[in-house]
Structure formats: structure tokens, C-alpha cells
Protein 1
Amino acid sequence: MSEELLESREGGIVTLTLNRPEKLNALTKDLWRRLGAALRRLDGDDAVRCIVLRGAGGKSFSPGNDISEFATDRSNSEQARVYGALMHETLSALRDCRHPILALIEGICVGGGLEIAASCDLRICGEGSRFGAPIARLGLVMAYPELESVLALAGRAATLQLLLEGRIISAAEALRLNLVSRVVPDAEVVAESYAAARRIAEGAPLVHRWHKKFIRRLEQGKPLTSAEADEGFLCFDTRDFEIGYRAFLAKQKPEFEGR
């Protein structure tokens, strides 16, 4: 694993860390590529129960793309398409990952950092965290695949407010706009995020994967087929269902197997 992207594992919880603290974890073309590759690999790992995505250093999740690369890798539309394809593949890997992904947000979460966090399933931040998308000041647009997750969370009015005004907003305002799931004191962000990850990991992994799949399908707004509707009952044929209800009756903690 590249030093710019660290990976660690404790039980079924995998932590991916954007590791450029000297640049506040600004994203490079290579870092986008490596993050996407890691997510696609982990997606196929049935031992994973939850992925925690964070930035190194405690001061920043990510301020977005490293501006120093613009002159070399994004100086025209042809280069931007290549760069954008990497970004969009990674954002898709985040949204489509079977496993729950939690963004642990300390400090700055702006631009591409906000797009990444919005593509996760849960976002826990500190009271001192800051959010925004002031890209109009750079003469840039938020392309369709980058806009998708932010719009889904905040809605039309709030997303336009972020993009048109370019303000950097507080954690409290981000919570009001649904950009984050929970705000806690800065000193408690790490502990609360991993407590949430453990709660997720203790649940039935097949159920988490089904819920993510069902929500994505319902967001399409099309009628369900009979086969799709029937999928909601397949959990009753799993070993995890048997483990779960027997543990409940015995007043014991279930140890799910993911099958």
C-alpha cells in the first residue's frame, strides 16, 4: 500500500487513511487511483464488516484536490477527462461498495474531500470541522458524478447555496443541511466513530449489504420487479437469521458468520 494511503485492520473493521498530513491530505491523481483500487479489493472481501475512511494528522479529512497538479495533470479538458475518470471511478467504488463505509471527519472537509465524505454511508465529524465547495473561485464545476452524492444528501437548495456562494460552513450548519450524520466534540470524533464502526460490525453483514442494495434500488424510483420484492425475504434462509433470533431468545450476543 502506498504511504499516501494507509490500510489497517482490527477484526472486521478496516481503516483507510489519506496520509498526506503535510498537505492536509489533499488528493492527488495517484491517491484517487489507489483509494479506488483499495475499495474495489475490499468490496470482494467477505471478512470486512465496516470500512472507516479518515485523514491523517487530526487537522483535516481532505481539502480536495492538490492544486499543484492542475498545471501538469488538469490544464485542459483532455487531461481533465482522464483525471476525472479516476475520480469518478473512485466515487462509484465508494457508493457501490457492499460494506458500510463511515467517514471519520476531523477538521477540513472541502471540495473533493466533501465529495468523498458524501459518498460514504455515515459521516461523523467534530464541532470544529468545516465544510464547503468553493470551486467557482477556481473556475471549476462539480461534474455530474461528483455532484450526485452531495445533492442526494443536501437537496437542491442547499447544494446550490454551497456552490454559488462558495462559503465554508460550520459543522453545525453541515448537520442542518444533512451533510453529516452526527457532530461530537472534537476530542471525541475518533472514539465515537470507532464505537459506531463496532456497532455496525456487530450487525449481520448480509443484512447491511441488502439494506445498502435496497436503498440504492429504491432511489431509482422505478417499480420493483416481483423477483426484487421477493429478495426482501431471503434473509430468512440465512444462517445469520438463525444465529440472530436464537441469540435474542437466549439473551446472548449474536456472533454472525455472514452466510
Protein 2
Amino acid sequence: MSWWTRLRRVRLGGLPASSDGASSFHLWWQVPSDRRIVETRVTVEVRTPPAIDRLYFWALQVSFEDRGRHLGAGHTGVQWHPASPGGAINWGGYDPRGGELPGTRSDLPAVDSANTRRWSWSPRVPYQLRVWSPTDGVWRAEVTNTLDGTTTVIRDLLLPATELTRPVVWAEVFAPCDDPPTEARWKDLLVVDSAGVDHAVIAASVTYQPVSAGGCSNTEAFVDGSAFVQRTGSATPRSTRTPLELRVRE
């Protein structure tokens, strides 16, 4: 293998070369395959926040299905957003053709779209993200400050799904690969089935956006006790490779 081939497989500095200018990496939940999932919950804590004025997005994503018919996917989570000092929150998604999913208006002020709203959050505070259906055809995302118990409804997406599939949490970073490190911790991953039974999720499969698709080589996912950790901005390329399964301590 030539030095140039090796070089092209590593990106430690500069902006991601992807079409949207972001580098992403994912933790795909391992959930019961014989259950119809109707709710997902996870707690996210941005332990080390960004040091620069760039967009960072830490999200919970779910796919929507109706008796085997794929209707699209939605994502909710906290954003470090240049246009919203103090933070932003998101709940939006796309149908299989790439169009935005319909939804209700939010009581929170808009930032740059109906999906992204102004909402102040603080580093080193755990926030629970929840996606569930209060009534048929309505899928709600809400966020709870776990320190003071305050819950905020972000808004509802409107589509006739009967279950949630392929839950995943991810980090999407619109910043140079060599910008100062950030760290987000994901805990208490949970799905609820149609019978109302809770299922704790303790294992996830990791994927990284490849360098060939514009991704950074110095993003890393690992386990720290009972938390899944996503870190950006390492000084060296990641030591783990995909496919990789991570399992937290119960």
C-alpha cells in the first residue's frame, strides 16, 4: 500500500469533505426483534462542550413503520448552534423520498427551520430524550432536565406509523476534525414495547462515517462503566474499527 493510499484513509484536520460538511458516527441499539416498539428513551450529557462557534448535534433517531411499510425517520436531540446562543433542540425527519415529515408548530422559537427550536441547555447536565405516541398518528419528542425534573415538549410529527424501528444515537459535527475535543455520554437506553414492557438496551453497534465519504478519522466511541461515550477531536486516529459492538455494564 502506497503512502498516498494510506494518507487518503486518514483525516485528522480540516473540515469534513462530505456533501453536507459534517462528520458523523453512530451507536445502533440492539433491541428485541420480536417486539413492537412504541417508545424510546435515552439520557444524553455533553460532558465536554465545543470550544468553537460551529454546529454540533447529538441526537436520538428512530425509523417509523406501519405493518412493515417504512414511512421515514425522525431525530431529536440537543444542538450547539451558532444561530442560537445557549443551545437548541430538534425534532424533525424525512420520508423515504427525502421530503420533510409533517409536524405541529412548536411553542419554542424557531432557529432555522420548523424542526430546530431555541432551547437553553447546559453542559454536564443529563437530559432525557423521549419519543412516544400520545395518540394514533402522532409521534411526540420531549426533553427532561433530569436534575430539576422539568419536561419540555418539543413538538409532534404527524404520520400513521404503528411502531418504531432501528433506534440509534449519533453525533453530527460541522467542524474541522482537529478542533478541540468534545465528549457526549449516553446512558439509560430504553425501549418500550406495545404491551408496555420496558427493555433496557445495553449493547450497540458502532459505525463511523468513512474518510472516503468525508468523515474524520479521530472520532471515537467507547464504553465507560454504564455509559456509551462519543468523543471528537482526538490527536490521533481512532484505535477501534467497525464493525464493533459495545456493551455497557449493567
Protein 3
Amino acid sequence: MNKINILKNKTIQIRKALLQMIFNAKTGHTGGSLSSVDILVALYYEIMKINPKKPKWKSRDRFVLSKGHSVEGYYTILADLGFILKEELSNYCKFNSRLIGHPSVKIPGVEMNTGALGHGLSAAVGMAIAGKMDKKDYKIYVLMGDGELAEGSIWEGAMAAGHYKLDNLIGIIDRNHLQISGNTEKVMSLENLKEKWHAFGWHVLSEDGNNIEKMIDIFKKIPIVKEKPHLIIANTIKGKGVSFIENDAKWHHKVPSKEQLEIAMKELDSLLKKGFNI
């Protein structure tokens, strides 16, 4: 089995695990967690310089999950890599658990608390500036949801990143076109996204965010342009991998029933048998 197929296999395992977490907890953000899995797997298993045994390693790459509500896949990956014990995932959103519904710095590997949407990019800009000041070569990756782009702080961060020429900063938009209230273009139109970010001084790229091979390829090419932050519009499907969840805004914050979980698991298992063509 080649490396790409191993990683595709991993994306399915992560999807199964996060669905089980949400089912056990009876709470969670299903659709957005499923859409972002391929992006996270590409970063954590192939791209970023990290050390689970030394989560505060000074030369590590930094990752900020600005769309903090889609935390289930993130926690699952941190556990799979050894930042936390896999057994702890069963405590997700339980009383006194540190695995709450948004990322917390109490968890090794998490760089900042997120949850109030729109704050992640500005914090990542600060991290990128610090890296430049310290003459370090680490990169900062920040994953945003498309719905949170209605927050003004996103555009303040975007303007600052362009001004300071932060080519060590990579922004990623999980562009699944759905937020809790429905289609993004009906709630608060975003397009033309590429032109907007370009106007703020970013080098903008667009890719299939559910194609792990393409995401790895684009991450490895960065920085493509010197002295500019990079923005990847990752075109995804909300609920990717489970047919009855895909492209349905109701699954932004919906928990599967026992029967639905069984169907979802069978669908994901069938993808493995078909050769990882998710």
C-alpha cells in the first residue's frame, strides 16, 4: 500500500472515530468536522514539523483551529499521534473532562483556545510576527470556516498579515458553503473570495480540500511567493464521507442516532473496500 492510500485510510479511520465521539457525547459539530478531516490529516501526518513527546518544542510548526467548534477530528488526530491518550476520547464533553467542545490549551498540542469565531487568524498573525522577530523558520497554519469570514476580525488579521509580509503564515478556508443558518451566500455572501484576499496582499490558491493528495502537494509548494502570506481556499463538502450528512446544513450541529451511526460506519467501511475513493 502506497503512502497516499495509507493516508486515505487514515482519513476514514478519523471520520469513524469522530462520529463515535459525537454519538457517545450526544453533542458535537458533525458536518464541519467531517469536511475538514482531509486537510487536518494532510497537515498532521505529512506536512507539519511536530513532536508529540515535546508539544512545546520551540521549532515546531503551529496550527490554529479557528473554526473551533469542529474540534472532534482535531482531538482524534491528536490522540492518534500520541499527544493525548486515545482512551480520553471517550470522555469528550463529559463532566470534568478537559476535552470540551472547543480546543483548549489544557490539551497538549493545542496552541490556543478557540471558539469565539474570527479570532484564530489574528492570533496566528501574532505567532507569525513572533517567528519573524525570532528569526525562526517554523510555519503557522490556521484553518478557518467559511461562515466565520463574516467576522470583522478576520479581515483585520488579513490586512495585518499582508502589511507585515508574513510568508510564514498559511491560511486555509474550509469552503463547504454551509454554516449553521444555511448557505453562506444567502446568509452573508462571500464571493469573490479570491479577489478579496488578493486585495489584502495574500497569495491565493484554490484546491479540492477533500483530495488529500492534492492538499499535500499544495502545502509542499508553499511558500510560492516570498513576502506574502498564503491563503488556500479548500473546496470541501460538508459532511464528507457519509451520504445522508453531505451538503445538509441540519448536520452542522446534529448527533446521529444509533441507526444512523451504524449506516455511517458501514458506508465508511465500504469506502475502504472500494480502494479509498472517498
